[in-house]
Structures are given as C-alpha cells and as structure tokens.
Design brief:
The protein has 303 residues and is of the alpha+beta class. It has two domains: 160 residues, Ribosomal Protein S5, domain 2; 125 residues, GHMP kinase, C-terminal domain (Alpha-Beta Plaits, 2-Layer Sandwich). Helix content is 35%, strand content 29%. Helix 1 runs parallel beside helix 2 and helix 6 runs antiparallel to helix 7. The site of cytidine-5'-monophosphate (C5P) has 11 residues, from strand 2 and helix 5.
Length: 303
C-alpha cells in the first residue's frame, strides 16, 4: 500500500446559475454552468490508527473555519468509499486549504472529491469513474464537478454533468468576503424573494455556451448570470459595493459566485486582473482578492 496520496482539487465559479422552483425533496432544479478555476485545495491521505475512523486535520488561512468531524465532506467521502468496499475507514486526511471557506466556490465539495480520489488511490481500489461520480453526487450537488473540472453544465440539482468545450483561458479575480454565507440560507432567501411568482424552468443560455466554446471573454461577460445573486445581496447588501469597486476598476463583468459571498470579476487579460485585484484590496470592501485562470483541471493525483 502507498504511504500517502496527495490530490489537488480546483475551486469553481458558476458562469451561469439558473435556478428553478423548489422540488418536493427541497432541492432546486438548476441549469448550472461550472468553470473550474486555478485556486486549489490539496488533500493528502495516509493510513490511520486501527478503529479510529477518518481523522481530519486542516491548515491554511481559513483553517479555523473548517469542521474536522464527520460533517467534513472529506471524512464523509472516506466513510462512503470504505463502506462501499467493506473496508475500515481508518485514514488520516490532511487538507491544505486555499479555497475560501463558505464562499460559493465549492471549497468543501473540492475536499470531498479530493478525499474520494485520494482514498481510492491509497486503497488501490481503481473504482470506475462513473461510480466515483455517483459517490460524489451522494456527498453533495457540486462534488461531481470538483472531480471532473474543466467546464460543465450541471442539471438536476446540479450533479448531472455534461462536459463543455472551452476555447481559451479566462482571467478572473475573486474578492473573498470577511464572513461566509450558508448555501441553504441563500436558497431559502431565493424562495422568499420568488414566493408567489412563476419561476421559469432553468435552461442553459446558448450565447454563454458559445462564448465559452469560442474563448470570447467580452461575449462571456455579457452572458454571465446568477439567479442566486439577488438573494445573496439581500442577505449581504455590502456585496454591492464590492461588485461596483471591481467594475469601476475595469472588470468586463462582475457577479456573485454561486451562493456567495465571494464575488467574481472577469478581466480582459492578466494585467487587467492584477489591477482589479489591487483596487479591490485597496478598497477594504473584501478580506482578500485572488487572481485565477479558468478552466482548470479537475481533481488530480500528484506524483
Ligand atoms: O447538495 P448540497 O448538500 O451541497 O446542498 C446544500 C444545500 O443547498 C441543500 O441542502 C439545499 O438547501 C441547497 N440546494 C438547493 N438546490 C440545489 C443544490 C443545493 O436547494 N440544487
């Protein structure tokens, strides 16, 4: 057996997040266009003491906000994979966290997908890709995309993925807020704001898919859309100021990433991204600003 396995997993931004009405199971139907971006968590697994179950540790700037019990998706991934193969889930899981926590960038999902791939490799299971994706979907709606990476359309509750072609690299800036937002809370606010209105069936925007395919940043900027943005702004009105700051600094477009509160800014090129990040940092409207390119590769085992 290998001594340890290290997996790198990317963050995501939703370039389109179309949200339908609440389903009977409480989830919302989505047309969710994911783009993986080059901010990464690293998940390292190694055999743990017999009978101890998954033992999670975490380092990084936001490490104190990461739960270390079995609510952590990385621990749940190890339990699910071990359970499926009748193995003892005795594994040490270390998360080197660089993706903002509770930020709408799938940081927790990344750790789930990373731990699943890492444990599969550590235990020499060679679980087929389709089965890994199904296990990911059981862990959470965004987890399959963290494994896949690149760009994809997520339908259903976001877990049914179709990979999308992307014709170039896009430059992004992410403004990380001082405090996270809970995803269920943002969906609840969406329900409150849309109560009594007809919520249309979510559908992918052909213009947006074309912009991705062509690697056309100005066209992508025009098509960026997030149906959760109003709900996130309603819960955190100060995000408007962050969005305005990035736009005034030259962003082609600005939007809330997923359920927020991270805000995402599409830039023309790397130089523009640096200038936008500088303006955001100087404004004090966010905790930090990060530059990243997308698409990025999905979860990958590091040598
Ligand atoms: O799937 P995941 O566990 O990440 O979802 C977290 C929460 O976000 C759900 O419990 C639900 O409240 C909300 N959600 C939703 N519709 C989706 C995905 C998530 O309402 N399609």
């Amino acid at each position: 057996m290998r001594e340890h396995v290290r997996v790198r997993v990317p963050a995501k931004v939703n370039v389109q997040l179309a949200v339908g009405g609440a389903r009977p199971d409480g989830f919302h139907g989505l047309a969710n266009v994911f783009l993986a971006v080059g901010l990464y968590d690293e998940v390292t697994v190694a055999p743990g003491p017999a009978g101890a179950g998954p033992l999670v540790t975490c380092t990084g700037p936001d490490a104190d906000q990461v739960p270390l019990d079995t609510t952590n998706l990385a621990a749940r991934a190890a339990l699910a994979l071990a359970g499926r193969h009748g193995l003892e889930p005795d594994v040490r899981i270390h998360i080197e966290k660089d993706i903002p926590v509770a930020g709408g960038m799938a940081g927790g999902s990344a750790d789930g997908a990373g731990a699943l791939l890492a444990c599969d490799t550590l235990w020499g299971l060679g679980t087929p890709r389709d089965e890994l994706l199904a296990l990911c979907a059981d862990l959470g709606s965004d987890v399959p995309f963290s494994l896949l990476g690149g760009a994809a359309l997520g339908t259903g509750r976001g877990e049914q993925l179709t990979a999308l072609p992307v014709g170039g690299s896009f430059h992004w800036v992410f403004a990380v807020a001082h405090e996270g937002l809970s995803t269920p809370r943002v969906f609840q606010e969406f329900d409150r704001l849309t109560a009594g209105t007809r919520v249309p069936e979510p559908a992918a925007d052909p213009a947006l898919l074309g912009a991705l395919r062509d690697g056309d940043a100005p066209a992508l900027a025009k098509a960026l859309a997030n149906d959760l943005q109003r709900a996130a702004l309603s819960l955190r009105p100060s995000l408007r100021e962050t969005l305005d700051t990035g736009t005034e600094a030259g962003a082609l477009a600005a939007l809330v990433s997923g359920s927020g509160p991270t805000t995402a800014f599409l830039a023309e090129d790397a130089r523009a991204a640096g200038a936008i990040a500088g303006a955001l940092l100087a404004s004090g409207t966010c905790r930090t600003a990060r530059v990243a390119e997308g698409p990025a590769r999905g979860a990958v085992v590091l040598p």
